[in-house]
Design brief:
The complex is a heterodimer of chains A (about 525) and B (about 325).
Chain A lengths: L6 E10 L2 E11 L4 E5 L6 H8 L7 E6 L2 E3 L4 H6 L2 E4 L11 H6 L8 H19 L14 H14 L4 E5 L7 H16 L3 E6 L2 H7 L2 E6 L2 E7 L5 H9 L17 E11 L5 E11 L2 E6 L6 H8 L7 E6 L2 E4 L7 H6 L2 E4 L3 H5 L6 H4 L11 E2 L2 E2 L1 H14 L16 H13 L5 E5 L7 H16 L3 E5 L3 H7 L2 E6 L2 E7 L4 H8 L5 H10 L1
Parallel strand pairs in A: 3-8, 3-9, 6-7, 7-8, 13-20, 13-21, 16-19, 19-20
Antiparallel strand pairs in A: 1-2, 1-4, 4-5, 9-10, 11-12, 11-14, 14-15, 17-18, 21-22
Chain B lengths: L1 H30 L7 H19 L2 H25 L4 H24 L16 E2 L4 H4 L5 H9 L2 E2 H19 L1 H11 L1 H6 L4 H27 L11 H11 L4 H21 L3 E2 L3 E2 L2 H19 L19
Antiparallel strand pairs in B: 1-2, 3-4
Classes of the chains: A alpha/beta (about 525), B mainly alpha (about 325).
């Protein structure tokens, strides 16, 4: 086709200090198409899109919109050129209504009333045209994330965006919500809109896009027609070498249970019951995965078991000892002393103190261990020795125990936490989101470490919102929804089925019974 | 009895006016995400500027203008430190308080040689009380008379300005484009930035609005309520206004009631001075002075729920570097 492309980038470069976020990027996006941009975290996708949206300025290179060379000074200019963006973290004001959020920055006049009325009518029209239903008077904070995202899309359409950039749009969505989003994108495309979809998930690229560009370390390495490529090829382009999409592991040989949880219930600080009467067990030599969309009680479950949060009731049996969780006053240190390691979900908030150096972080939580402390004073040389050994064994880069952990990449930070917990040789390891914000190389490493630990006869409880990760690692899969375990499946469970469970659709068997009753 | 009540209420109005003006000033600033504990300093600076210029020119209006000028300048300093240079807003605010306290006394002494005070204002240098029509005639009508002629009539123009500023602020905040953006930038500046609006310019405008109202508050003290500037004449009113702002959960109408309450306590304190309360004896004046703070703490602790400040308050806005 010789049609003028909607967006064309020529030789875009951008550095942040010594870091080249984007280097000599060329990109052509056809009008009326869904164009995917894929790459690992830190490959420069978001920077590139921020340049297009006027959030950053390129050091070098040209931007062409509809064949005309333009300068995008700020987001206002980008909006004026019909470019809209749905950010990864929604740019919404939580205590505003949908209508106020849509109108913000596009108010028509100094008085609000007229603009709000026009927006209400316009939203009605958009709702009918694109099937984007949302109550204009609802407060953002009361809406589920799926609807919040819809508000972001409406915001862009209200500003008559012709090109819509979506940055990692499915990170917060359930699989059915994601499917629905892709349907919406399809409708938008058919109405002539151009869509740029930024993601690191190969499946989404294959499912939703017409063409795809791959970025690696700030460079654009390839552009393909989606139908002429495969997940394997794209994965290889992303990391520059072949990766195993599946974890190489032998079947599990589980032994006796090492951890048994019975009738666990947890109420959070708002007084809402977030974990409801949950029972399960983890055997030695197996990985039990807990799948679910974030916010369905998994985090609280993990925090309770690791001693950070109090339960309202339930028992925990670990290594033959029975603990009444409803009355226990055991804290995180006590739980660790019971040979239970914990890799928290959020390494920045709980796993590390980022302004501390690597060697200090390498014993956090174990700092009372006589090997590292003699009561009053820390045994710095022993701690450093240990840190150096862990750095070597876990290939933590840069290999410098004196560096603040804030200076390490996400993958290496995660390895620091993992090394700390695994090397204490726990009988049970609780792991939350082990590969969130971690690049593919490190994911592979972390996964194989976890499998190794399993094969060494330890029990692992894995909580992850990445279904692919659960399916690749777990020997048994429990699905949590609304604080309950709503289903258990084997290692080879069907993805669609898990997706339905995660979305709160009850087991098929139950559904058909209810259906008959009606 | 009724007479006494009216008199107390009348002085309540007078005493709450500077609180109210400063409180609304803080409301603009904090709603935009700029915490302002420099209200005290700005008021003091404005009081001095107003007192000095009103004395020299014998014109209250020029005095008011000068007060606003000083206060806005201090506000812009706060803005420069905390918006442009993303400094710590508390530190900047404290610095402004010290700066104003020191500078007003120093300049006052250097210029007027009266121990830091400005000389008594000449005729025309002070805002006079405005007597409403028929106030004298209605004075003797029961109930309505005192209410009209004492409570409503007979205040200077800045008192009326303070109370008109309440609905005006509400209207600006909730009915105008500027207000929508102001509230948004205090909650989620990134949302404002991505909507193509300048976060810095918006916050500067909020800081300027804050300066203007603080200017009114300061001028009220030195050239309306008082007849000249006295060293440290704000005496913590800026902090009480801040307490009122939290107490009112950053809402204009509630701010008015909070300031009236604190003004009322002040009025009662003055009334009670040197008077014996049967069974208790003389209540120290400090007790009443501490009451606003104690009340704020106690009421916020349990009775009126949590005061949730604008989410982005106190946090300098920095574009995220991905």
């Amino acid at each position: 086709m010789s049609e003028t492309p909607a967006i064309e980038l020529r030789g875009i470069s951008k550095s942040f200090g010594p870091v080249h976020a984007n280097r000599d990027i060329d990109l052509v996006v056809k009008k009326g198409s869904i164009h995917g941009i894929i790459g690992e975290n830190g490959a420069g996708k978001s920077t590139l899109m921020s340049i297009l949206y006027g959030f950053y300025h390129a050091d070098d290179g040209d931007i062409l919109v509809n064949g005309e060379k333009v300068t995008i000074a700020d987001s206002k200019a980008a909006i004026g050129m019909g470019i809209g963006m749905v950010h990864q973290h929604f740019m919404l004001v939580d205590n505003f209504t949908v209508l106020e959020n849509v109108v913000l920055g596009a108010e028509d006049s100094a008085m609000l009333a007229g603009g709000l009325d026009r927006a209400r009518i316009e939203l009605k029209r958009l709702e009918e045209e694109y099937e984007l239903r949302v109550d204009p008077d609802a407060l953002i904070q009361d809406l589920p994330v799926g609807l919040q995202q819809r508000v972001e899309i409406l915001k862009a359409l209200y500003r008559s965006a012709e090109v819509l950039i979506l940055d990692e749009p499915t990170g917060v969505l359930t699989p059915p919500e994601a499917d629905h989003l892709f349907k919406i994108l399809e409708v938008l495309k058919n109405e002539g809109k151009t869509i740029l979809l930024i993601t690191h998930k190969l499946r989404e690229i294959m499912a939703a896009t017409d063409s795809v560009s791959v970025m690696r370390r700030g460079e654009m390495v390839a552009t393909r027609e989606t139908r002429n490529t495969s997940m394997e090829e794209l994965a290889e382009l992303m990391v520059g070498r072949s990766v195993l999409l599946r974890v190489d592991k032998k079947p599990a040989v589980p032994a006796e249970p090492v951890m048994q949880v019975e009738n666990l219930s947890v109420t959070d600080q708002r007084g809402v019951q977030v974990v409801k009467d949950v029972s399960f067990s983890v055997r030695a030599g197996e990985i039990v995965g807990i799948a679910g969309v974030s916010g369905n009680g998994q985090s609280e479950l993990l925090e309770t078991l690791s001693g950070i949060r109090r339960a309202t009731g339930g028992t925990l049996r670990i290594n033959g000892q029975t603990i009444d969780l409803g009355t226990s006053t055991l804290d995180a240190a006590d739980m660790r002393a019971k040979s239970m390691g914990h890799v928290p979900e959020d390494r920045h908030r709980m796993g590390l103190i980022n302004s501390f150096s690597e060697y200090e972080n390498s014993i956090l939580g174990y700092h009372r261990d006589p090997a590292y402390s003699s009561g009053l004073l820390m045994n710095i040389s022993a701690i450093k020795e240990n840190a150096v050994a862990e750095i070597e064994k876990y290939d933590i880069r840069p290999p410098n125990p004196m560096l603040k952990t804030a200076s390490f990449s996400g993958g290496n930070q995660q390895k620091i936490v993992l090394a700390r917990e695994i090397e204490r040789d726990p009988d049970v390891l609780l792991v939350g989101q082990p590969t969130r914000g971690v690049d593919i190389g490190a994911i592979e490493f972390i996964h194989s470490r976890l499998v190794e630990l399993r094969d060494a006869g330890k029990g692992i409880l894995l909580v992850s919102v990445e279904l692919d990760e659960i399916r690749a690692l777990a020997d048994r899969i429990l699905v949590m929804f609304d604080g309950r375990i709503v289903g258990e499946r084997g290692a080879n469970a069907d993805e669609g089925e898990l997706g339905l469970l995660m979305a709160g659709v009850e087991d098929n068997a139950k559904m058909s019974v209810e259906g008959d009753a009606r | 009895m009724f007479e006494t009540l009216i008199l107390i209420l009348d002085s309540t109005v007078r005493l709450s006016t500077p609180l109210l003006l400063a409180c609304l000033a803080g409301l603009y600033s904090e709603r935009s995400g700029v915490v302002d504990i420099g209200l005290e300093g700005k008021m003091l600076g404005a009081a001095f500027g107003a007192g000095a210029v009103a004395y020299i020119t014998a014109n209250a209006w020029l005095g008011l203008l000068a007060g606003i000028g000083v206060s806005v300048a201090l506000g812009l300093l706060h803005g420069f430190a905390s918006i442009s240079n993303r400094g710590n807003q508390i530190v900047s605010g404290v610095a402004i308080n010290f700066l104003a306290a020191g500078l007003t006394a120093l300049l006052g002494q250097t210029w007027f040689r009266q121990g830091g005070r400005t000389p008594a204002l000449p005729e025309g240098g002070r805002f006079r009380d405005i007597v409403w029509p028929y106030a004298e005639q209605l004075r003797d009508v029961p109930v309505i008379g005192p209410l009209y002629s004492e409570l409503l009539s007979g205040h200077n123009i800045l008192v009326y300005a303070g109370f008109i500023a309440v609905p005006l602020t509400w209207w600006v905040l909730f009915r105008t484009r500027f207000g929508l953006r102001l509230r948004a930038v205090g909650e989620n500046p990134a949302a404002v930035d991505t909507a193509g609006i300048s976060v810095a310019w918006l916050r500067y405008r909020a800081v300027i609005a804050c300066g203007i109202l603080c200017g009114f508050a300061g001028a009220y003290l030195s050239i309306a309520q008082g007849a000249g500037f006295g060293v440290n004449m704000t005496a913590g009113k800026g902090f009480i206004a801040l307490a009122a702002l939290i107490f009112a959960k950053w809402r204009p109408a509630s701010a008015m009631f909070a300031c009236l309450l604190f003004g009322f306590l002040d009025a009662v304190a003055i009334r009670m001075q040197g008077q014996e309360v049967p069974g208790i004896g003389e209540i120290p004046v400090q007790f009443f002075q501490a009451l606003p703070y104690i009340l704020t703490v106690i009421l916020l602790a349990g009775f009126i729920g949590k005061a949730v400040p604008p989410k982005a308050a106190g946090i300098p806005y920095l574009k995220e570097r991905s």
